[in-house]
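For concreteness, we quote verbatim a single protein encoded this way:
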Amino acid sequence: PEFSLPSYSVDVDEGSPAAVLITTPAPDADSGAVNSLVFYSLAARNGTATATDGTVDVATLFSIDVSTGTVRSLVTFDAEVRTLYELTVSASDAFGSDPVHVTTVSLNVRINDVNDNGPVFLGAPFDSEAVSETASVGDQVAVIEATDADVTASPLEYRIEPTTGMFDIQAGGVLTLRQAFDAEAVPRVTEATVTVYARDADSGAEAPVTVTVALQNANDNAPRVLNPLDLNVQLDENQALGVPFVTIQAVDDDVEGNTLSFATTSSQFAVDPLSGEVSLTLALDVETRSSHSLFVQISDSGTPPTVTEVQVQVQV
């Protein structure tokens, strides 16, 4: 038998139903009822057809008409699994011929990629993203990336809903801050939810994913003194040592309510580290000094801590 071509190839679109692919005739020039008969068989180039999910029998994928050499597909192919099957067609004399001649030819079946996969988000669900209240408009919050499983991936376009909310979506699925926020605002909002859509620019297929972003409080408020007018004090020079004569009242406006501590480097005065009460450690002497300026540092327990310095003015 002699094939009419030195090799054969055929293209099949992925997803196509099983059908006739090609006929590979190999006529036998011998005469006679037996010698002129040809029988066809089919095998993978190396005996098997190997796909990404393992090694499968070529007989489960293709069939060949033993009398005509017509090759059919038996399955619906997926280009994302395999794009090329390398087969061998054999044509042999009929059983009983003497001698039996066998001729082989290669047959390549190419599986064409079709845009049959929509966008799929990587890493979903997106329920643990976070942004600090110190973030600036335009800062990156997260990457909400999608992929196209097609062999030839289509460009992906992103959009977000609501479009007037706290966030924008950029190329590549980059979620950015559109509006700054204050964790201390009333009513307090601790998280925001948006929907990001990825769209296949070629097919129009679109996939949504819900993104929940925690709005994190930051230690962005320094301690605030409540009674600054009380910190101008007049004392008799016989003021008792260790007896509080003024209390510095302060608060932390951060929502997590940091603990405040008070400190001073003065040797003349002392300040209680927890209550902010100020007292004398050394006796006053108006003849030596009639006024004193005491500087007190108020620190919060945040990370990193913030510090406010306040001045207590004492007239003797």
Observations:
- The longest strand covers residues 102-112.
